[in-house]
Design brief:
By secondary structure, this protein is an alpha/beta fold. It is 42% helix and 19% strand. It is built from 23 helices and 26 strands. The strands form seven sheets. Strands 1, 2, 3, 4, 8, 13 and 14 form a seven-stranded parallel sheet that branches. Strands 17, 18, 19, 20, 23 and 26 form a six-stranded antiparallel sheet that branches. Helix 1 links the parallel strand 2 and strand 3. The chain starts with a strand and ends with a strand. The structure holds 5'-O-[(L-methionyl)-sulphamoyl]adenosine. The site of 5'-O-[(L-methionyl)-sulphamoyl]adenosine (MSP) has 19 residues, from strand 2, helix 1, helix 7 and strand 13. The site of 5'-O-[(L-methionyl)-sulphamoyl]adenosine has 19 residues, from strand 2, helix 1, helix 7 and strand 13.
Length: 645
């Protein structure tokens, strides 16, 4: 059985955790729970990144020491993970000695082998990103290419890691290991970055400028650059350099989950560091998209950061876990709004799953003395449904293995919906009324068997709620995938207990309570409504035009949709956001000629599925006879996401 090692990024302790941090950690938790269910040895690591300028700055602002800042903030992470049901096997802090001494050991080794050298540095430094950039990286003269904030120009002596030496090796490694960087368009992004000559990496900070970090073992006037220190957590935590047996148990069967903003550090710095140290790269680096606040970037200054603790308290931990995992298509950005949370909760959990459980269990309690009935002869309808449910176990397993839990969850939800349709078709309430107990027994047995499979396959996502569901139908709570698959393992005669309010419907304010008195006190201001303009036939108003949100978008990746002639699946960058659009342009463009083009899209088109593939928008194109040309922007560096109109 292959071991499975999974990590989250280690989080900076300059501020409290938010929904983005929660997402990666819940994702890691869910995937690791699935691998445990598959009977594999699993190690799930998370932790905190405690050195560097951000942490020092946060401490200075509060007038406390950096370590006090770390100690105070780390608790917020640990408490949140406990609240969110995170089952991590280890939690590393980069201020722990088990980490600092390995970082120093690696630094010394690389220095002794001349892979680290001293030189004068002249560069542009971005404090929030803690990264140096060269002149050509900067945007609009002096702005950081990542966060677009102003950079500082710095001239100083520093130590450098000979990263450039590994450029060709890295390109070749990425090209020959298609599963190394996921999704595939992120591998293309890294390869795009590697088209420019790779420079050596500045890995030190003079103490005179920043003292909060791990001291270089060969020069007491410097501390280590926070990213060089932080990345090493993935191997120091499992005993690299001190416990070789443990290290070899987990490495390189390792999967790093990261957000798209830390792609370069993980897919360029980290593998080259490992190559220099003499260790294989991890198996996978999976970069997910960003959680936006609606359509906008979440930021403290905009005051739109979603607090995960509040969401979990208000709506329940499991519902929050489910929403995050089901809503985000891995790799793409997702907009969070409380309204979309409530809609998904009410439709998937309260209506589909909650109602199914309620109906099947209550009818069994009422008609079969709270015992799972002995089924009669199965009809085709029953067999088709049970096969579908059993198939979803396999689908979930393969989706988890390819790190796409969102797709596995969607399949289980399809089974739940199919079971609700089955209940409508077989109408057990009519069977009960007619006294057709044999058929009623078969139908309820089938529904309970589906609930057992659903409860098991969704338990890594919603551990508490699914344990409640499984216990109520007398099924084992800690089951494995092979337990789930043993057909017909709901045992007739098993005692079941009624289940109330598994997912009570969330009442939206306007349904629930009358408007607060305060609001009514103020006399409403009645504005006279302007008469609607008379629009000549064939014309639209400017308001009509602006209902269509046109934006520029940069094509990052393109591939044909299998078994179709006309469709291409495109990944596009739309400002901060990443989107997938399926377009019928394969007869006119080859995928490779599209990459890098800036096109125009309809950004607010309702998402649709084309041949089962999600499409989020539409490309504008002009067609004349047999010819079709995309509408493009003819300035190479024109930003994506710009509004048109
Ligand atoms: N300390 C570094 C990681 C070092 S790993 C060796 C760091 N920390 S962070 O706290 O700033 O960010 C941690 C993770 O949170 C990153 O993967 C980042 O992508 C993710 N997110 C931050 N904001 C996010 C959203 N709004 N949405 C989703 N994830 C985002 O970077």
């Amino acid at each position: 059985m292959n071991p499975f090692y999974i990590t989250t990024p280690i989080y900076y302790v300059n501020d409290k955790p938010h929904i983005g941090h929660s997402y990666t950690t819940i994702l890691g938790d869910v995937i690791s729970r699935y691998h445990k269910m598959m009977g594999e040895p699993v190690w799930f690591l998370t932790g905190t990144d405690e050195h560097g300028q951000k942490v020092q700055k946060a401490a200075d602002e509060k007038g406390i020491s950096p370590i006090q800042q770390c100690d105070e903030t780390v608790v917020r992470y640990q408490e949140l993970w406990k609240k969110l049901g995170i089952n991590n096997d280890d939690f590393i802090r980069t201020t722990q000695e088990r980490h600092t001494k390995i970082v120093q050991k690696i630094l010394q080794d690389l220095y002794d082998r001349d892979l680290i050298y001293k030189a004068e540095y002249n560069g542009h430094y971005c404090v929030p990103c803690e990264r140096f950039f060269t002149e050509k990286d900067l945007v609009d003269g002096n702005l950081c290419p990542d966060c677009k904030r102003p950079t500082n120009t710095i001239v100083e002596s520093n130590y450098f890691f000979r990263m450039s030496k590994y450029q060709e090796w890295l390109i070749d490694y990425i090209q020959t290991h298609p599963d190394f960087i996921k999704p595939a368009f992120r591998a293309n992004e890294t390869l795009g970055f590697l088209k420019k000559p790779l420079e050596d990496l500045c890995i030190s900070r003079p103490k005179a400028r920043l003292s909060w970090g791990i001291e270089l073992p060969f020069d007491k006037d410097y501390v280590c650059y926070v990213w060089f220190d932080a990345l090493i957590n993935y191997i120091s935590a499992i005993g690299y350099g001190v416990n070789d047996e443990n290290f070899r148990k987990w490495w390189p069967e390792c999967h790093h989950l990261i957000g798209k903003d830390i792609l370069t550090t993980h897919t360029v710095y980290w593998p080259t560091m490992l190559k220099a140290i003499g260790i294989e790269p991890p198996k996978t680096i999976l970069a997910h998209g960003w959680w936006l606040s609606g359509r906008d970037k979440m930021s403290k200054s905009a005051g739109n950061v979603v607090n995960p603790m509040d969401m979990a308290e208000k709506y329940g931990v499991d519902a929050f876990r489910y929403y995050l995992l089901a809503e985000m298509t891995l790799g793409q950005d997702s907009g969070f709004t409380e309204e979309s949370f409530i809609n998904r909760y009410n439709s998937d959990l309260a209506n589909d799953l909650g109602n199914l459980a309620n109906r099947a269990i209550k009818m069994t309690v009422r008609n079969f003395d709270s015992k799972i009935p002995q089924p009669g002869k199965f009809e085709e309808l029953d067999i088709v449904l049970m096969n579908k449910a059993h198939l979803s176990i396999k689908t979930m397993e393969s989706m988890i293995r390819s790190l796409q839990p969102d797709k596995g969850i969607a399949e289980v939800m399809n089974v739940i919906r199919a079971t609700n349709r089955y209940m409508e078709q077989t109408a057990p309430w009519t069977l009960a009324k007619e006294g057709n107990l044999e058929r009623l027994a078969t139908v309820l047995y089938t529904a309970i068997e589906v609930l057992r499979i659903v409860g098991g396959t969704l338990s890594p996502v919603m551990p508490e709620k699914m344990a409640k569901l499984l216990s109520s139908i007398g099924a084992p709570v800690d089951c494995t995938f092979s337990d789930l698959e043993s057909a017909g393992s709901s045992t007739p005669g098993t005692q079941i207990t009624d289940i109330d309010g598994l997912f009570p419907r969330i009442m939206v304010e306007k349904e629930a309570a009358p408007a607060p008195a305060k609001k009514q006190e103020k006399a409403p201001v009645i504005k006279e409504k302007k008469p609607e303009p008379i629009v000549p036939e064939g014309c639209i108003t400017i308001t009509d035009f602006f209902k269509t949100e046109l934006r520029t978008a940069k094509i990052l990746a393109a591939e044909p949709v299998p078994k179709t002639e006309k469709l291409l699946k495109l990944q596009l960058e739309v400002g901060e956001e990443q989107r997938q659009i399926v377009a019928g342009i394969a007869l006119f463009y080859k995928p490779e000629e599209l990459i890098g083009k800036t096109v125009v899209i309809v950004a607010n088109l309702m998402p649709a599925k084309l041949r089962g593939i999600e499409s989020n928008g539409m490309l504008l194109a002009a067609s004349a006879g047999d010819n079709l040309k995309l509408v493009t922007i003819d300035a190479p560096d024109f930003p994506s996401g710009a509004k048109i109109g």
